[in-house]
Design a protein that fits this description.
The protein is an all-beta fold. The chain folds into three domains: about 60 residues, SH3 type barrels; about 70 residues, OB fold (Dihydrolipoamide Acetyltransferase, E2P); about 55 residues, Nucleic acid-binding proteins (OB fold (Dihydrolipoamide Acetyltransferase, E2P)). About 0% of the residues lie in helices and about 55% in strands. The strands form three sheets. It has a six-stranded antiparallel beta sheet, with no helix packed on it. Strands 9-8-7-10-11 form a five-stranded antiparallel beta sheet. β3 and β4 form a beta hairpin.
Length: about 190
């Protein structure tokens, strides 16, 4: 594990604080009057989701968390669990609780490849703490209400159903069978493919 000085604790770094991995959401190094510099940070626990505000003094150091990224194939979701398998050997299946994943798989099709974020603790035990999906995905429209004539001037939208069952606001010209590119972070329509 690498040691980070107080001023190296920046946004998107993952640090080990009180034995658990935290992602740095915000950091600001400043000096109050004649005192030593301080790094005021806002950090988020990657296991529990708890957010804390911690100030690191100029003499403090923290460990950078050991993180591994591993690819897996998303198979399906059932009874509050997400089922995945190894990319090379589909017989090696495992499940994750839906709370770990959150809404990230809302726009992902079955049998799609995803990336697992794995934290390794001091005892070399691995724990999946998150999942990373592609930023943009292409999905086919299965249901779309007809456009209302004369409603196109305002640039209106309508709710369409995609092939994985999720819904998205799309322009009025979108019809059944169209492939749409969706931003998985915001859940918004990007373009018709």
């Amino acid at each position: 594990m690498a040691m980070l000085e107080y001023n190296e604790i920046r946004e998107r770094k993952i640090i080990l604080w009180e034995g658990e991995p935290y992602e740095v959401i915000h950091s600001h190094v400043f000096r109050k009057q004649q005192r030593k510099p301080v790094n005021a940070t806002k950090i988020k626990n990657l296991i529990t989701g708890r957010v804390a505000e911690i100030s690191f003094g100029s003499s403090e150091k923290v460990h950078e968390a050991d993180m591994i990224n591993r690819n897996a194939i998303f198979l399906y979701r059932a009874k509050g669990e997400i089922w995945l398998c190894d990319v090379k050997d589909r017989s090696k299946r495992f499940s994750l609780k839906e709370e770990i994943v959150g809404d990230k798989l809302k726009y992902i099709k079955d049998n799609s490849e995803v990336e697992l974020n794995i934290f390794t603790n001091d005892d070399d035990e691995e724990q999946v703490i998150g999942i990373k999906v592609p930023i943009k995905v292409e999905l086919e429209v299965t249901e779309a209400p007809p456009s209302v004539k004369g409603n196109s001037v305002t640039g209106g939208t309508k709710v369409v159903v995609l092939e994985n069952g999720s819904t998205v606001d799309a322009p009025l010209f979108v019809t059944v069978g169209d492939k749409l590119r969706i931003n998985t972070d915001t859940g918004e329509y990007v373009e018709r493919v």
